Amino acid sequence: MTKPWRAAPRAALSSPLTLIVAAVTSLLACFLGTAAVLQASAAGGAAVRYQTGITCPDSYGPMFGKGNMPVRDIPAVTGAIRRHAAAHGFGAPVVGQFTNVLRGTEFNGDPHYKIRLGYRDQAGLDSLTLQQGTRAPGLWLGNVVADAEHIGVGTKPSLQGVPLPPVTGIYRDLLDPPPRWWCSQQSGAVIDRLVDDPIDSIVFATDGKTFDDTIKAIGLPTMQYFHVSFYEPAPATLSAAEDLLQRSKDLVADVRADLTAQGLGSLIAADVPDFGRSVQISRQAQDNVFVSILPLALISVLVGCAGLGTVALQWYQRRHAQLRLLSARGSGPAALGGLAVAELGLPILLGGAVGALAARLLLGVYGPPGAPDPSAELRAAGVAAGTLAVSVVLLALVVAVRVHREFELGRVRRGGNRVRVLAYFPWELATAGMAWLGWTRLAHYGTTSRLGNPLPQVDPLALTYPVFVVLTVGLLTARLAWLALHASHRARFWSRPALQLAIRRLAGARAPVTGVLVIGTLAIGTLATGIGIANGQEEALDTKSAIFVGSNARLDTDSPIGMGQVAMPAAMAGTSTVVGELTGTGSVVLVVDPATFTRGAAVDRVPGDDLAGLLERISRPDPRGTPVIRVGHTAKQNTKLPDDLPDAIVAGDLPVFPMIGTSPGYVVSRTVLSHAQLDGIPKWSVLTTAPMAEATTALRAAGVFIPNRISRESALDGLPFFVVSWTFSFVALLGAVLGVVAVLALLVAVEVRRRQNALAGALVLRMGMRPRTLLASHLMELGALSGLAIVVGVVCGVSVAGLSVPRFDPATFLAPRSELPDPLPFVLTVVVIGVAVVALAGWIAVRSVRTARTAELIRA
């Protein structure tokens, strides 16, 4: 005779529904536990990626430099760096050297040129664009001077009578801003001709020997700019960044010790100035996300384990007769708990493994755009293994305890009283208290970002506030639904039999119905909250940066282009506009060109549909004064305009406007101003939707002076916004998982009642009800349940997100405040999915009637 334990895996196939529920419950628990660890680590990787994107590519590692470096000491310094670099995992160092201004340089017989001689190791020439000539030993001259002065390849320059190497190439001058490879060398390698730079050209030596021989020939004692750095691959994870930082510090220490031993210890400055701070910020971002999602992750895993405990109770009830027999034959509680593990252990393990694997493979879908650390992947695997171990132990323990109490102690009924007490306990009051506590903490969220801290300090209670609000509403809705179903026996709708039958079926399954309602409401509400807050912060970053800059890029210029003396370059004509700015009366006054403003400024961020009409209105002269658009109106704002302009005549109001924000200000059309009034405007700016590099190149080619410029990418530090978004993307993930659970619970509940539905359906069909009416009855039942969950979840989730988004704003000092994105796409998606699930469940319910056999109906 085969023992039940050996035959348990095969016996489990007799109830495939239990196997599926056990596997899916384990899958979701392990998925959420693994995802929490990976999400936090990926946030650190994404922060590193963001920080490396805004720093020079050679600032990830150590940097050595000194101004006015003695030429005689350069070999000792570079030698020490090269000796120790390989020991710490670094490649060959890149040495950059630039002389001071060499006046009296002669080209083609003219001795009045001013040049700076420079050289960089390795890819220095590769990072320049050669227009003429070759890489033969010699000098490369910038194209601006070469073209203007007709200096060609083969020219032999000299410096105060000392012959210099010949010109072997003409390269394209590096303009400000230079390519990223040169950004750390901007002070030496870039000429800004539009700010009266005294240098005519940066002349690069093609190789180190040519540079050294030239410096020796002219007898130069010092090097104005001396810089040594390493172009290491950008770290992809936080652990790689921390390792690179530590290796950099070790290299700096060894080089300093080496130079100190040679008596040159104070010769150069050595540090990791930029990336050290970047690593610190990335670590804080990872810790913030981890602390934020930790409570939700723990709750999710505990709920998953509780679900497996429910599976154990269901298995116990299904195997009750067999367990009684085995207990009577001498099997103890531990052995019978082991039988449960033998039957359900394999599905639980497989489900957990699939959940952990799915969490890793789908990280790019739900997580931050960063790579997790290898150690985090090991921790995530440990969390999944721990969850599985707890699940299996819990399965055996629940069965063993029930066996011990019922078969050894003879106690069966006492647990029912406890369950009844738990059901009547007002859990919604407890969750409401937690929500209120989170709300009080939320008021102080982000305060530190205004005090110089790049990332707001995290309060986990503040971040759990939205979830507890949704949970409170879900529990309250379920309790009201429970009471309504309890009183539903008073309902009399026999004139509409489909509706009456739907009500009776709901009342006959109050426990599953309220359970599905709670899970569904929590899923939709949590999903709405997570998506709303996450997308709200990203949209806030886009909106704030667009309003602050005024467009994609803002380039301050001088009056010629503002007055029309210099035409807008053809490459920018369709994407740019010129704006003047006046101050002095307390209100900012922008002078705009109505014909081009809407195509060059960030008008899509301005609320209101009649901006074009307002611009047209202020373009018509008014004898009473200056027609204006009033922005951010306050009681203290007066109508006086600066520079003796006529007082403002308000043609319309707007709450926010590009460059002004929500500050008190006025918008004036340049068409109503005289030439003298336009000539008195001290500041002009070009707003353009074109990329910054293209706009700078086009304006410089037109000879436009650009003292300052700013782009949306560099205007704000986006990391505080991203941290909030990454945190609530996990909340959205939790809502999505709960949504899957709610759908499965609804379909499983319909399948569990298959025999009851088949018997009841067969009876009502025999009594004359049409199949179409029976289908309508099931759709009413399932539609009422799903519809209530959708309505309550959407209203609650969207409302909570709308209240929370402005409070999670990490830059409240910058207008406009964060706002909830349009929830209509989310609502439509939820409704479509809900309709599809209801239709599928109704089809399953009616199909059970049509496919039921006579013998099955008799047994039912």
Automatic annotation (TrEMBL):
Residues 730-851 form the ABC3 transporter permease C-terminal domain. The keyword Translocase does not apply. Residues 1-42 form the signal peptide. It comes from the Bacteria. The keyword Cell cycle does not apply. It is a multi-pass membrane protein. The chain crosses the membrane at residues 289-313, 334-358, 378-401, 421-442, 462-485, 506-528, 719-750, 779-804, 824-846. It is found in: Cell membrane. Keywords: Cell membrane, Membrane, Signal, Transmembrane, Transmembrane helix. This is FtsX-like permease family protein. It comes from Amycolatopsis plumensis.
